Amino acid sequence: DGKFTVTLIEGDGIGPEISQSVKDIFAAANVPIKWEAVDVTPRLKDGRTVIPEEAIDSVTRNYVALKGPLATPVGKGHVSLNLTLRRTFNLFANVRPCKSIAGYKTPYDNVDTVLIRENTEGEYSGIEHVVVDGVVQSIKLITREASERVLRFAFQHADAVGKRKVRAVHKATIMKMSDGLFLNTARDVAKEFPHIEFDAELLDNTCLKIVTDPIPYNDKVLVMPNLYGDILSDMCAGLIGGLGLTPSGNIGDECSIFEAVHGSAPDIAGKGLANPTALLLSSIMMLQHMGLNEFADRIQNAIFAVLAEGKTITGDLGGKAKTSEYAEAVMKKL
Ligand code: IPM
Ligand code: MN
């Protein structure tokens, strides 16, 4: 029928409500996508968290998935499902853009940062152990292979989004070996992209400068190891109004998963109060990734128009609209 099939992981808490907004708006915009909803409730197999086979098959078959927030089950043996998904599909680059939203006032105007986070290793490798009682070791694993892969992606992404500079963010002054390897690899990869300016900056300095004045970061793609990217991407989100407004994409060679970075907000789940903007913007990144740019532009313009008007916005943004009212306002602007 000429439609793309996309895996939908609705997620927990507010996940189903915000997913519904995406489905409604996509249907209203006639986006040629069929959703294949899957359950990713984890199973424990030999003491490890595993994703149900059907969910894995679906993402593998469709190459592309959209994902709502997933709560991690509490209990021994369970590792974050979010991380398990990234690792299962080898989604090595996490793309996190933050762009100021017209009409939503923050202390900063015209922010337009793009952060690429290494997504498979670093402190997130999950290698830790008790040495003796009261002493633990967590391994920060850095490999040239994973570094090279995400760095190359960052340069290619700079080209794709029209940024002229790539900056590696690191702490090689202290983490001499691990960040040193990342930084040296960055310098090597930079030679493959002579038309893109490359430099490096210490993470703490980046934090200081970006909250003082984010504008000098608008012409750069920032690329960094996993944990730094986790932290700095929330900081960037803070510049434009928080995680309710920022999309993200986990990119791999075989498939990609686009997701909202915020949590499942159990306190407001089921009440129709959630803001679906982050998941919607993630679905727009997904459309761009699939080459469906016309649909992406149309939906994005409609969202920005509703936010700029500021009349039909959700409680987190200071409005009174329900999730469905906001989605309907977006559909009217299509
Ligand atoms: C994120 C989240 C995750 C992370 C959590 C939920 C495991 O904070 O996507 O940034 O730390 O990567
Ligand atoms: Mn995070």
Characterise the protein shown here.
- Pfam families: Iso_dh.
- It is an enzyme of class 1 (oxidoreductase).
- Octamer of two non-identical subunits IDH1 and IDH2.
- It catalyses: D-threo-isocitrate + NAD(+) = 2-oxoglutarate + CO2 + NADH.
- Residues 5-330 form the Isopropylmalate dehydrogenase-like domain.
- This protein is 39% helix and 20% strand.
- It has a ten-stranded mixed β-sheet with strand order 2-1-5-14-13-6-7-12-10-11, with helices on both faces.
- The chain is an alpha/beta fold and 334 residues long.
- It has helices spanning 15-28, 53-62, 81-88, 144-161, 178-190, 203-212, 226-240, 277-289, 293-309, 323-333, and strands spanning 4-9, 33-37, 43-45, 48-50, 64-67, 93-99, 112-118, 128-132, 135-138, 165-170, 197-202, 220-224, 249-251, 256-259.
- Strand 10 (165-170), helix 5 (178-190) and strand 11 form a beta-alpha-beta unit.
- Helix 1 (15-28) crosses helix 8 (277-289).
- It contains ten helices and 14 strands.
- Manganese (II) ion is lined by residues 230, 234, 261.
- The site of 3-isopropylmalic acid has 5 residues, from helix 3.
